Amino acid sequence: MNSIKNIQAKIDQMEKLKKEIEATKKNINSTVGETLIKDLGLDYEKLSSKKEINKIVKKIKEKLPTDFFKNQEKNSNEVKNDSNNNNHNQNLHQQFNNNSNY
Q1: With a threshold of 0.85, does the pTM exceed it?
Q2: How far apart are CA 22 and CA 69, in angstroms?
Q3: Radius of gyration over alpha carbons of the chain, in Å?
Q4: Among 3, 67, 78, 91, which is least packed, fewest CB within 10 Å?
Q5: The dihedral of CA 60, 65, 66, 71: what is its sign?
Q6: Is there a contact between 14 and 21 (Cβ–Cβ < 8 Å)?
Q7: Taking a C-beta distance cutoff of 8 angstroms, is the pair 46, 52 a contact?
C-alpha cells in the first residue's frame, strides 16, 4: 500500500509541475507580447482580431533574417568571449606594467 501512495504522490507532483510549466509559459507569452507591443509602438486597436495579429506577426517575421535567433545566440557568445579576452588582455597588460617597474 505504501508504494501505491508514493506513486500517487509522484503523479500528483507531476500534475502540479505541469500546471506550473503552463502558467510560466503563459506568463512568458504575455510578457513577450507586452514588450513587443510597447517597444514597437503597436496600436491595440490594430491588434483587436486574430487576423490582424497574424498580419503583424507575419510582417515582423518577414523583416527578420531567417537565422536571426541563431545569430543572436552567436553574438551573445561572442560578446562574452570578447569580454573575457579583454579582461585577459587587461590582466596581461597590468602584469607587464607591474613587472616593468622592477
Answers
A1: no
A2: 23
A3: 25
A4: 3
A5: negative
A6: no
A7: yes
Model pLDDT, residue 100: 39
Buried b (16+ CB within 10 A) or exposed e, 7-24: eeeeeeeeeeeeeeeeee
pLDDT at 69: 79
- The per-residue pLDDT for 97 is 45
Mean pLDDT for the chain?
79
Among 55, 60, 62, 24, which Cα is nearest to 39's? Answer: 60
User: Residue for cell digits 579582461?
Assistant: 87
Do residues 64 and 55 lie in contact, with contact meaning Cβ atoms separated by under 8 Å? no
**Residue listed under C-alpha cell 552567436:** 74
pLDDT in the model for residue 72: 67
Residue carrying the nine cell digits 607587464: 96
Distance from the Cα of residue 1 to its chain's centroid? 44
Residue 61 pLDDT: 87
What contacts 40, CB < 8 A, 6 or more positions away?
A: 60
